[in-house]
UniProtKB/TrEMBL annotation:
Residues 972-987 have a biased composition (Polar residues). SUPFAM superfamilies: WD40 repeat-like (SSF50978). WD repeats lie at residues 449-463. It comes from Salarias fasciatus. Residues 992-1003 have a biased composition (Basic and acidic residues). SMART domains: WD40. The gene is llgl1. This is LLGL scribble cell polarity complex component 1. Belongs to the WD repeat L(2)GL family. GO terms for biological process: cortical actin cytoskeleton organization; establishment of spindle orientation; exocytosis; Golgi to plasma membrane transport; regulation of establishment or maintenance of cell polarity; regulation of Notch signaling pathway.
């Protein structure tokens, strides 16, 4: 063996070519709602909407699938944005007082795999400008920009400042026109003496262009003065002497009047007449929610209608004492008055209305409101002004995400039933008003589902087949239990109660939006999800040990749910549960809407959070695990088959429960530091007092053979008395050989936090080649499932078991339930010996079955200095050869990188940097698809979608008809500048595919020429995800904390590895 130890394997050119055809890392699109939005803009001609964020990102949306993304060089908040209508250009104002011009630009042609492809079109920054500060006694804040106005001619930008001056920029060159500059002194000179009083007019609060006469603009000052200024004649046509602090202005369409809103919660209507140069009083003034003091009306819109009465829309204005903490927007038309009550702050809003000059009325069709946590669209043409369901930008975090699950190749029948179930709860449909551009992406070859579990006990089903992540259906598990806010105890909507309507208080509030960060009971939180797409069975497990089996029903049903209790402690003495109580199940029949309806509730005792589940619908079996043990349940016969306790005598922390983890975190940190200090002082290995076995002897032999390898790190065995050592990390069903090499049958595998693996042989009536089929006299219904312990494996270093997968005789993963029996997949090889792949946090290892002898392994922690966090078996198809594919093991580590290995040989293929290692929440939330894609949370409300496959990509492909040709702009170094949002759309291969014409645009998908925020973003910047709430993606474990308590040697080795990888070529990284 010695002669092979230090031999470097040469690279095979043919294999390298195959790798390039199989693997390529791309971050393709961001799903969900932008994190911390700060600005909104709308192009009425192109029907495009733009959202700016506090991290400097700009995201443009049109019809579903039409998306463009850009990122400012500095991570500074976007405060205002304005489209140049019809041109595909956008102006942005940042919090650092800089103005930036963006435009859709076509990139140069690229080559991919020897094939020439036309360039993509991206949102690029083409210019920027900053107002110069004036030297002298005037402060620098005098030129701080407060408001922007883009004239209809699109050739002039008006800039209002804190000093009261108005400046003008020529577009698109961003050149200051000094001859048009309007200082505040020039306005003050024309004011009446009694109004002037030596006071400053204050900052410019609003600029509005006359709707009928070009070159005339309204200038509103904070003190209350409004001036109608003629740009061509350079004089004030009219003065409106307001006496209340001004907030905003809006013109009426004809230009005969305008409306001003103020900080006292009122608004005033002013008449514009040519004969009166000074107007001291408005036509009318109203405080709609007075007479008591009210908050300011921040923004107001006045829209005319053909029906008669105008529509008045304004945000704020609530009575300070009683409703000062509400986030509201009011809609008024004649006697109709609605106060929209939101759960998050209003950022901005606009109306979709007619903008053609020849039209006499605005006739608004929709109201679009950007809130801090969601986007709400109101239909203004339908009586009652209902809200519209959003096809994208849905708030994923309407309740905090606790887990997720991806289902690929969803059968059409299941898809149709899910869509119908979603429509049954939300049957209102209307054309989406933001419909600009055209989605050129071909229809998806298969339907994909993303399931997200939430803190409030709901499971949401999302259409993940394309760029737009569209909500399909929402399932709630709360009505299975009695809770403090019980939907079944009070099924009537209070708004429909005539008695409630009589007592309804003023203002007329209406709850709008779905963002609800408060959970009625944290025990309802969903921790694990498993769906069988062929039998339509869903398994959902939660925080209080509840495991629910649901079936799909197209009709509403009133029924009770069967309840079974499984005691995982098995009457073990010396343990007392100190955590939360179990949820009280509802024993009486309860109404369940169409969709997935609960059939069986299995309650684990103690009611600890469920940490692992497995569903085998063909055998009617479910398996579930907690920090105390695991159980097996037959949901067809409604009986518990197995309950196994995995607790160690020192597992005190396991008895406290996840909801009391906060008070135990200090203890965990203290224990972690003590272990590190002990490992630093003591260089000797700790002895492991466990019974010897053939598996341990094989492990020891393999360890001794590689003891002197210089590239490996020394890994200290973990103590058997570590807290939470009994946590069940993974469960797996498999039809394989466990008893002997000739008879295969159902098995259950379980892995724990202490490196223990339990394998049970199952006797399922009518399944397998064991004794179950030999019982000819007994009927299947009367025969119960039996479980017998077949093997028990203890990994040498006691590292937590992350994943267990059984491979068939060809080394391929076993098919899912029903796939082989219904000829939906290639039948597994049952003639040759099977093997089991066990992935722990420190290494990957393949054992032969049924002897369970070690065949091969890869010690990831020893070689790379990282720990395994997520594992998936993925099929990668070649981008060149249609019929060629490989099964690959994908590992996500605690450093945020992806390692790909072939199976069953476990030879490293490629490695990619994916997630920042500081982003614990992103790593914990990552979920893989079976075709080489994945999702992870980059914020509480956004999923980043990425692809590891060179063939399978889900990325924006769209077109927009512009009034100008698309040309690509070269930077000073001759390269195209394409900044991307949040460091996404990064392609490590350095190639993109796409086609574009003068009117066809692709969303950005090429590498940014700027420094990638993924690697270089400081932790305290708005882009950093390190400050996210960790409970949005599951519980914070002791293992997560250990990642930041590494020794100095480990840190130096990790840094060395990173530097070595950075020095390699930008192609595929080979380990």
């Amino acid at each position: 063996m010695m002669k092979f130890r230090f031999r470097r394997q040469g690279t095979d050119p043919q294999r390298e070519k195959i790798k390039q055809e199989l693997f390529a890392f791309n971050k393709t699109v961001e799903h969900g709602f932008p994190h911390q939005p700060s600005a909104l803009a709308f192009d009425p001609r192109l029907q495009l909407m733009a959202i700016g964020t506090k991290s400097g990102a700009i995201k443009i949306y049109g019809a579903p699938g039409v998306e463009f993304t850009g990122l400012h060089k500095d991570t500074t908040a976007v405060t205002q944005m304005h489209f140049l209508p019809g041109q595909g250009r956008l102006l942005s104002l940042l919090d650092d007082n800089t103005i930036h011009l963006w435009e859709l630009v076509a990139g140069p042609p690229r080559e991919l795999g020897g094939v020439k492809k036309e360039g993509v079109v991206s949102l690029n920054e083409v210019g920027s400008y900053s107002l110069p500060g004036r030297p002298g006694i005037e402060s620098c804040s005098a030129t701080r920009v407060t408001v922007l106005l883009l004239l209809k001619s699109c050739d002039l930008l008006c800039i209002g400042t804190e000093g009261g001056g108005v400046y003008f920029l020529e577009l698109p060159r961003l050149l200051l026109k000094d001859n048009l500059t309007l200082p505040q002194d020039q306005i003050t000179q024309s004011l009446p003496d009694d109004y002037r009083c030596g006071k400053s007019l204050g900052p410019v609060e609003s600029l509005q262009e006359h709707p009928q006469q070009s070159g005339k603009i309204l200038i509103g000052y904070s003190r209350g003065l409004v001036v109608l200024w003629d740009l061509n004649a350079r004089h004030a046509d009219q003065l409106f002497l307001g006496k209340q602090q001004l907030e905003s202005l809006v013109w009426e369409r004809s230009g005969s009047l305008f409306v001003s809103s103020h900080n006292d919660g009122g608004y005033s209507v002013w008449s514009v007449t040519s004969g009166n140069a000074c107007n001291p009083q408005p036509v009318s003034s109203t405080i709609p929610y007075g007479p008591f003091p009210c908050k300011a009306i921040n923004k107001i819109l006045w829209r005319t209608t053909q029906a008669g009465s105008p529509v008045l829309l304004y945000s704020g204005g609530m009575p300070r004492a009683s409703y000062g903490d509400r986030h509201c927007l009011t809609i008024q038309q004649d006697k109709d008055h609605v106060t929209l009550d939101f759960t998050s702050r209003v950022i901005d809003f606009f109306t979709v209305h007619s903008v053609e000059q020849e039209k006499e009325f605005d006739d608004p069709s929709a109201l679009v409101v950007l809130l801090e946590e969601e986007l709400v669209v109101i239909d203004l043409q339908t009586p009652g002004w209902p809200s519209l369901p959003t096809p994208y930008l849905a708030p994923l975090h309407s309740s905090a995400i606790t887990c997720s699950c991806h289902i690929s190749s969803v059968p059409p029948k299941l898809w149709e039933r899910l869509v119908n179930a979603g429509r049954a709860t939300c049957n209102y449909e209307l054309i989406w008003p933001i419909c600009g551009g055209k989605n050129l992406a071909p229809p998806p070859k298969q339907q994909e589902l993303l399931l997200t579990g939430h803190e409030d006990g709901t499971v949401r089903f999302w259409d993940a087949s394309g760029v737009a992540l569209t909500p399909l259906y929402k399932l709630s598990t709360a009505n299975v239990f009695h809770t403090d806010c019980d939907p079944c105890d009070d099924p009537q909507d209070p708004g429909n109660d005539p008695d409630m309507q009589q007592e309804e208080e003023w203002p007329p509030f209406r709850k709008v939006g779905c963002f609800d960060p408060y959970s009625d009971d944290p025990r309802l939180g969903i921790q694990k999800i498993s769906l069988c797409k062929y039998s339509n069975k869903l398994l959902v497990a939660g925080t209080a040990g509840q495991v629910i089996v649901l079936g799909l029903n197209d009709e509403r049903s009133d029924h009770s749910v069967d309840v079974s209790v499984v005691d995982l402690l098995q009457d073990r003495e010396g343990f007392t549960w100190k955590g939360h109580d179990r949820l009280e199940p509802r024993l009486k029949p309860a109404p369940f809407p169409p969709g997935f309806q609960p059939q069986v509730l299995v309650q684990c005792l103690p009611p600890a959070s469920v940490t692992a589940v497995a569903l085998h619908a063909e055998w009617n079996l479910i398996a579930f695990g907690t920090s105390h043990g695991f159980g097996l349940f037959d949901y067809h016969r409604r009986n518990a088959v197995l309950a196994r306790c995995t607790l160690h005598p020192n597992d005190s922390l396991a008895m406290e429960g996840p909801l009391s983890r906060v008070k135990s975190l200090k203890k965990s940190l203290r224990q972690s530091f003590r272990r590190i200090r002990k490992s630093r002082v003591s260089g000797k290995k700790r002895t492991i007092t466990t019974p010897t076995s053939k598996v341990q002897e094989a492990n020891a032999a393999l360890a001794e053979q590689e003891e002197v390898a210089p590239v490996q790190r020394r890994i200290e065995p973990r103590s058997a008395d570590d807290s939470l050592s009994g946590v069940v990390r993974c469960l797996c069903f498999a039809d394989t050989f466990l008893r002997d090499g000739t008879h295969h049958g159902p098995t259950l595998w379980a892995g724990t936090n202490s490196g223990s693996v339990y394998a049970y042989a199952l006797e399922v009536p009518g399944v397998g080649s064991g004794r179950a089929c030999e019982r000819g006299g007994a009927s299947e219904s009367s025969t119960c499932v039996e479980a017998v312990l077949g093997k028990e494996i203890q990994l040498m270093h006691r590292a937590p078991v992350v994943s267990i997968s059984v491979l068939d005789g060809r080394g391929k993963p076993l098919p899912d339930p029903y796939e082989a029996s219904q000829d939906l997949a290639i039948a597994p090889d049952m003639t040759n010996a099977h093997s089991v792949l066990i992935a722990s946090e420190e290494q990957l290892k393949v054992f032969s079955l049924p002897k369970v002898s070690a065949k091969t392994k890869f010690k990831l922690t020893a070689h790379e200095g990282c720990r395994v966090r997520k594992v998936a078996l993925v099929v990668f198809s070649s981008a060149v050869q249609e019929d060629y594919s490989e099964h690959t093991l994908v590992c996500l580590t605690n450093l945020g990188d992806m390692h790909l290995f072939n199976i069953p040989g476990l030879r490293p293929q490629v490695r990619y940097d994916c997630i920042r290692k500081e982003d614990i929440s992103g790593i914990a939330s990552c979920v893989f698809t079976k075709n080489g894609q994945g999702f992870y949370l980059i914020s509480p409300s956004e999923y980043e979608r990425f692809s590891l496959s060179a063939k399978v990509l889900t990325e924006p492909l769209c077109s927009v008809q512009l009034d100008r040709p698309l040309e690509f702009t070269l930077a000073s170094d001759g390269t195209t500048t394409q900044p991307q949002a949040n460091g996404t759309h990064k392609n490590q291969m350095g190639h993109v595919e796409g086609r574009s014409e003068h009117t066809h645009t692709h969303a950005p998908e090429t590498p940014s020429s700027l420094s990638s925020p993924v690697l270089e973003t400081p932790l305290d910047s708005p882009l950093s995800c390190a400050d996210l709430t960790l409970d949005s993606t599951g519980e914070l474990t002791v293992e997560d904390v250990r990642d930041f308590l590494t020794t100095v040697d480990e840190a130096e080795n990790n840094l060395k590895n990173i530097k070595e990888e950075e020095g390699r070529s930008p192609g595929i990284l080979i380990n």
